[in-house]
Amino acid sequence: MAGCDNAQLVSALDSDDTGTMNMGQVFTNGFPFELVNAAFGQELASEDVKSKIPPVGTGSNWGPESCLKRCGVNKPESGGQ
Description:
With about 80 residues, the protein is mainly α. It has a domain at about 25-55. About 35% of the residues lie in helices and about 0% in strands. The protein has four helices and no strands. The radius of gyration is 16 Å and the shape is flat.
């Protein structure tokens, strides 16, 4: 079982993969949901979906609620990382 010490996320990309792609944000950041959903023939964009997508560039998540509670960590209201 991991403790409640601070942790550091380290990520490396090689020259064949020089970046990341944040497709979820494309569907919920500026394009009307109706157009995105019509283009893909299914509901990919909605306020509910938007609330579950982390901000661009985070590359990590908060972890299980049980760990957050045990360690006294409160997530930001925005739902981001």
